[in-house]
């Protein structure tokens, strides 16, 4: 049985699309964050080390940005691997959501921003089909994260 609202075929094509971008997890994760920080500068305020960085070049070279980009991609990769198992999927999403809501106090709209940038990057690199097949996954992730935030009183 597949997770939530995704059919088995949708899970497979989403995994195929994700694998292409995950091959270069650090570079692509970094590209996503750099684009987020550049297009939505307010998101930098959550990251004390990145605050002073203004140029995209500087961000790209930063070990902290690269490290966090890789971390974001690894977390999504874990979710993608467990799309067929709701319990395992929620076992990854729930603690992540709780940490961002309670300890880090990150505005949940930032998850949607990151997901949209990942979809843009997929489309640029691999075309509209890749983006379309991964869109449902990002919707699942954001929906579950938003639910966790609601439970935490946001």
TrEMBL record:
Recorded catalytic activity of this chain's protein:
2 superoxide + 2 H(+) = H2O2 + O2; Fe(II)-heme b-[protein] + nitric oxide + O2 = Fe(III)-heme b-[protein] + nitrate; H2O2 + AH2 = A + 2 H2O; Fe(III)-heme b-[protein] + nitric oxide + H2O = Fe(II)-heme b-[protein] + nitrite + 2 H(+)
**InterPro entries the UniProt entry points to:** Globin, Globin-like_sf, Globin/Proto, Globin_lamprey/hagfish, Myoglobin
Q: Does the keyword Cell cycle apply?
A: no
Indicate the principal place this protein occupies in or around the cell.
cytoplasm
Q: Which GO terms describe its molecular function?
A: heme binding; iron ion binding; oxygen binding; oxygen carrier activity; superoxide dismutase activity
Name the keywords, alphabetized: Cytoplasm, Heme, Iron, Metal-binding, Muscle protein, Oxidoreductase, Oxygen transport, Transport
Keyword hit for Disulfide bond: no
Question: Domain of life of the organism in this record?
Answer: Eukaryota
The cellular location(s) given in this protein's UniProt record come to: Cytoplasm, Sarcoplasm
Q: What residue stretches are annotated with the Globin domain?
A: 5-150
Q: What Gene Ontology terms describe where this protein resides (cellular component)?
A: sarcoplasm
The role this protein plays is: Monomeric heme protein which primary function is to store oxygen and facilitate its diffusion within muscle tissues. Reversibly binds oxygen through a pentacoordinated heme iron and enables its timely and efficient release as needed during periods of heightened demand. Depending on the oxidative conditions of tissues and cells, and in addition to its ability to bind oxygen, it also has a nitrite reductase activity whereby it regulates the production of bioactive nitric oxide. Involved in oxygen transport from the lung to the various peripheral tissues.
Family statement: Belongs to the globin family.
Q: What is this protein called?
A: Myoglobin
Its lineage opens with:
Eukaryota, Metazoa, Chordata, Craniata, Vertebrata
Q: Which gene encodes it?
A: Cygb1
């Amino acid at each position: 049985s597949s997770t939530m609202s995704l059919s088995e075929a949708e899970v497979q094509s989403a995994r195929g699309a994700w694998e292409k971008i995950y091959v270069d997890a650090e570079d692509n994760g970094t590209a996503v964050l750099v684009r987020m920080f550049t297009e939505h500068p307010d998101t930098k305020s959550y990251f004390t080390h990145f605050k002073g960085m203004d140029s995209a070049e500087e961000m790209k070279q930063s070990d902290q940005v690269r490290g966090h980009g890789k971390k974001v991609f690894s977390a999504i990769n874990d979710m993608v691997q467990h799309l067929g198992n709701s319990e395992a999927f929620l076992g990854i999403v729930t603690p992540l959501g709780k940490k961002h809501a309670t300890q880090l106090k990150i505005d949940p709209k930032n998850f949607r921003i990151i997901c949209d940038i990942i979809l843009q990057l997929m489309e640029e690199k691999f075309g509209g089909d890749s983006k379309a097949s991964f869109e449902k996954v990002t919707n699942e992730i954001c929906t579950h994260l938003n639910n966790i935030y609601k439970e935490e009183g946001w």
